[in-house]
Amino acid sequence: VGGAFWAGFVHENAQEELVLRPPGARPEEEFLATCIRCGLCVEACPYDTLELGTYGVDVPVGTPYFEPRKTPCYLCEDIPCAVACPTSALDLAQLKDESGELDVSRSRMGVAVVDYNNCIAAKGLRCDACVRACPYMGDAIFVDSRRNPRTGKHAMLVPVVDADYCTGCGLCEHACVTEEASILVLPREVALGRAGEHYELPAPDFTPEVPADEI
Ligand code: SF4
Ligand code: SF4
């Protein structure tokens, strides 16, 4: 986690409130009451995405979490982590479609939030690395045009996330080209709930760093 925005965000939120859980995880309190700390989900993940909280890490000990900047969730179609869970702390019911088939696109591990004050596309440079990394490109994240405030006429193309479709997999955060990720997955209740009430997301500052006619 880095950049002025995220530093502020982390300061405002206890680290454990920013923990991302595997697909199908029940709401945090319920999850903590249901997860028996067996680690079967972690063992089942073929990408080593999941880790178990341990002493010295701000995650309840023995509970699974992931850090997308390090290793995102690759959204396995057969969702082995959730299938391995013996207590339904990872709830398969949340991950099934109307016909009862597993559908990993129903995962809601978090939601990606763009820090437009750090995103280079919002400074007028060409970049869509996060958009191209998304398996739900066009739905969960898309490129939108914003008026260039300097020239008033040239459009800038910036990434925009639609929380209704974002799974929180973090493939975008993993792919972001800036040194500190300019798109970060946050727990949904933080990004969409409490954050909305108590933490003002930074207003996009679409000031380009290079003249628009050189873009
Ligand atoms: S869906 Fe696949 S990649 Fe994602 S956490 Fe589960 S097992 Fe790992
Ligand atoms: S976290 Fe990023 S890559 Fe994953 S679904 Fe959401 S916008 Fe797409």
UniProtKB/TrEMBL annotation:
- An example of a Pfam family matching this protein is Fer4_7
Q: Keyword annotations for this protein?
A: 4Fe-4S, Electron transport, Iron, Iron-sulfur, Metal-binding, Repeat, Transport
- 4Fe-4S ferredoxin-type domain residues are 25-55, 62-95, 110-146, 157-187
Q: Which Gene3D superfamilies match?
A: 3.30.70.20
One Gene Ontology molecular-function label: metal ion binding
Instruction: Tell me the superkingdom of the source.
Output: Bacteria
Q: Which InterPro entries has this protein been placed in?
A: 4Fe4S_Fe-S-bd, 4Fe4S_Fe_S_CS, MauM_NapG, RnfB_subfamily
User: Do you know which NCBIfam families this protein is assigned to?
Assistant: mauM_napG, PRK09476.1
Query: What name has this protein been given in UniProt?
Result: Ferredoxin-type protein NapG
Q: What is the organism lineage in this UniProt record?
A: Bacteria, Thermotogati, Deinococcota, Deinococci, Thermales
Q: Coding gene?
A: napG
